[in-house]
Amino acid sequence: METPEWVILGRIVRAVDAAAPDLALTFAPPPQVNILEAGRGAFPDPNRPDGYISAAVPLYLLAVFAVQPFEETESLGDIEGEHHLVVVRHFPNAEEDLTVPVPDRPNEIPALLNFGSVGLFSPSKGVYTIAELQVHDGNHQATLICFESGFQQWSSMLVECPLVHEDAARQWAYHGAVSIDSRFWWFDLSWGILSGNVDGEFNLVFHPLPDGRVLQDAHGDNEQNALQYRCITVSQKLIRYVEIIEGDGDDEAAATVHMWTIGSGPVGGQWEETYAMDFQAIWNDDSYAETGLPRNVLPVVSLVSPEDPNLVYFTLGLRLFCVNVPQHRVVQHGHEVYWLADNNAQLEAVGRFVLAWDLPPEDEEEDAAPVPDAEAMVVVFLFLELLCFRKFPRSSKFVVYLCLVLAEFRFQERIIMHALDLSACRCPSM
Asked: CA nearest 260: which of 204, 196, 304?
């Protein structure tokens, strides 16, 4: 079967018998849900096998294997006890190990706080960055924690947090993270988004939710409603915010679904409403009647197609269906119920339990540049140190770059320049 352009992925990793392959995953097209299966040996405690997919980019998945039952948490809870981060390679046509264990953080690096606080970015095969943001009490500072595959080490830095100017007493809720190129977007579905570019000088920018959509806090019913009726995601490389807004009183027919988009202009751009549609128009369409789903019952928001922002997926009665919202027409629906966990928990397919995985084109995977290994990085660094001792002028950076290319290291440009910057920091004369 031909691999689809993208798939719906359940976030909870399903444990299988140890005799089974370490990892297994089908690639059924939407609206079917695909579940990553892992042998019990992949978990810190084989008797309590719990795993969760925190992030997905075209070439990789980022999974957290721990001893905490993710699906039973009241909200996106903090991680406690032993846990491991694992980067899972893209599956189709894979000729190498599918999992890459991420080294544990050293004692001086803060431990992973929350499985909704960490994201993943990958510009090409073999190159990826893991970034976690931890907001401190008082909202005046945050800690950015990164792992660079090219250097195989963790780093952390304190940064100013703009939330202190919004509400110093409010607690940030870790509802997830997405990335567009090297900019990460950490979001709280009740409040807004914190974003920052991990390449270059890092500055946090706060993007509050559209006017009138900020909730008082992210506790109790507020958080539950936010997780069910709100979604922040990426579609066509733009940040999208979707919300079902209920009508006054008990009038479900007056409910509407809205989408806003952050424009592609300067960072900190304003939300622009993309579309709005009332559910009565969707329920009245012949395509909805064909699903057999009940009218006048609000679904929950699941996800948005990464290829077409007009296509929003909803869940009702453990069945997924897709609506072209501007046309108020159902374009896909599943006839069978899905199961996101193997413990008979009837979990709704909301953003905390499903995500869209945009798969890379096959030719892109084949043409990807080779991975810079640790030994080659040492050679690069020593070469730069030699230049430092000889006190080459700063303009020699261009010569260094050409030398590396001619020597066929074929590193990603961002990794080369990162090494140059590191060497320049250690040797100011360069």
From this structure: 304
> Does 351 lie in the same domain as 409?
no
Question: Mean pLDDT for each 10-residue chunk of the chain (430 residues)?
Answer: 88 78 83 90 76 92 75 52 77 62 92 91 93 95 96 95 96 95 96 94 94 93 94 97 86 86 72 96 96 94 98 95 98 86 75 92 52 50 50 43 41 47 40
- What is the residue type of 164? V
Asked if 138 contacts 165 with a C-beta cutoff of 8 angstroms, the reply is no
Alpha carbon 342 to its chain centroid, in Å, reads 24
d(CA 118, CA 103): 15
Examine residue 51 and state whether it is found in any structural domain, yes or no.
yes
254 inside domain: yes
Give the count of domains, the chain: 2
- Contact indicator for 8, 34 with CB cutoff of 8 Å: yes
> What pTM, to 2 d.p., does this model score?
0.83
What are the structure tokens assigned to 301, written together?
């928001």
- Distance of alpha carbon 118 from alpha carbon 110, whole angstroms: 13
DSSP 8-state symbol, 114: B
Together in a domain, 38 and 126: yes
Q: Is the dihedral of CA 21, 23, 28, 33 positive or negative?
A: positive
Specify the amino acid at residue 7.
V
Same-domain check for residues 345 and 379: no
- CB 320 within 8 Å of CB 304: no
At 383, is the secondary structure helix, strand, or coil?
A: helix
What would the DSSP string read from start to end of 134-179?
Answer: EEPTTSSEEEEEEEETTTTEEEEEEEE-GGGGT-TTPPPP--EEEE
